């Protein structure tokens, strides 16, 4: 699937990263395998390349970040992806999370607010064989023309749960979203049991860049 150059060094570092994720509690073997199959260093520019397999977030330009691998794994576990699921990702950023979802067999729709990152990732992902549908715009409003979705993942910190996103979920669908203030957010999993019943589960705190847009911070 991946057309850029991989190496034994990077494969070894990926195995170490997977050990770290296991030690931190990630148990889903398909997700760990996806981390093995998606070379994170492809998503880094040369100045930061040696850091690609550290379990940390790193800058990707435009004041944005590629999320920490543990965060990507944690959110992906909460989503319980089944092959063929129609998934909306809000905050394409580098495209790494989208690559993991694609590797798990999801039909990924991903929306990015920042035009520069949108253009860059739209050109880059096909080069490494990741096929998703890209959109530029305000993902805090979801993607009404493509709804409903089986799963929605928000990869930026929101002040509240946007009601629009719950409306764009199928019955039985799952929304994973970090909600809090600008510095710290609690990870939430919302399962749409019926049109009127939402099951809300709360997890640890994380620290994301802010979700922008109408239902975000501005
Ligand atoms: N998922 C990304 C990855 O794998 O690299 C990391 C995302 S980064 C932590 C958050 C991204 O959300 C940034 O690229 C930012 O521009 C984007 N973003 C912020 N508000 C947004 C919005 N309303 N709609 C779409 N994207 C948004």
From TrEMBL:
Recorded catalytic activity of this chain's protein: [protein]-L-isoaspartate + S-adenosyl-L-methionine = [protein]-L-isoaspartate alpha-methyl ester + S-adenosyl-L-homocysteine
Cellular location(s): Cytoplasm
Gene Ontology CC terms: cytoplasm
Any GO MF annotation of the entry: protein-L-isoaspartate (D-aspartate) O-methyltransferase activity
Catalytic machinery residues: 67
UniProt EC number: 2.1.1.77
Family, as annotated: Belongs to the methyltransferase superfamily. L-isoaspartyl/D-aspartyl protein methyltransferase family.
Protein known as: Protein-L-isoaspartate O-methyltransferase
Lineage: Bacteria, Pseudomonadati, Bacteroidota, Cytophagia, Cytophagales
């Amino acid at each position: 699937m991946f057309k850029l150059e991989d190496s034994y060094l990077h494969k070894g570092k990926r195995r170490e990263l997977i050990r770290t994720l296991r030690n931190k509690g990630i148990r889903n073997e398909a997700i760990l395998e996806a981390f093995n199959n998606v070379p994170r260093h492809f998503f880094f520019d040369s100045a930061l390349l040696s850091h690609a397999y550290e379990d940390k977030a790193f800058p990707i330009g435009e004041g944005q970040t590629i999320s920490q691998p543990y965060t990507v794994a944690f959110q992906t576990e909460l989503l319980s992806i089944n092959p063929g699921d129609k998934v909306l990702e809000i905050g394409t950023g580098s495209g790494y999370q989208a690559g993991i979802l694609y590797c798990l067999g999801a039909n990924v729709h991903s929306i990015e607010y920042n035009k520069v990152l949108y253009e860059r990732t739209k050109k880059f992902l096909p080069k490494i064989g990741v096929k998703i549908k890209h959109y530029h715009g305000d993902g805090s409003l979801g993607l009404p023309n493509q709804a409903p979705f089986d799963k929605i993942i928000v990869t930026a910190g929101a002040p509240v749960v946007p009601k629009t996103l719950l409306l764009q979920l199928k019955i039985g669908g799952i929304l994973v979203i970090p909600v809090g203030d600008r510095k710290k957010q609690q990870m939430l999993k919302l399962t749409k049991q019926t049109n009127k019943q939402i099951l809300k589960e709360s997890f640890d705190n994380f620290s994301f860049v802010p979700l922008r847009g109408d239902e975000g911070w501005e």
